[in-house]
Sequence to fold (97 residues):
Amino acid sequence: MSFLKVELKTLHGGIISLELRRQTTLGELKAMLLEKHPSPDLPDLERQILTVELLIGASIVEGGEETGIAAAGLVEAEDITVIYKRNEVEAATQEDM
Fold:
């Protein structure tokens, strides 16, 4: 099985390198990126409400969780940025508990 090496930039100037199968979906990639969040000491609750968005250049990568990385344009892209952000709806729900 062949793997693709993908490098993603973070907004803080870091680089995340991953080896992915061509069949990897956006949902799988986002789960991998959540595991690699640059703050390992992030509280569990905060980690649970994080979401990931991917940018190619200045455009948000579109596609559902089952969309493959090739179909989303990530295989050929050279300028991929990962953004970690809080899911504000989930955050409000968690705070109400």
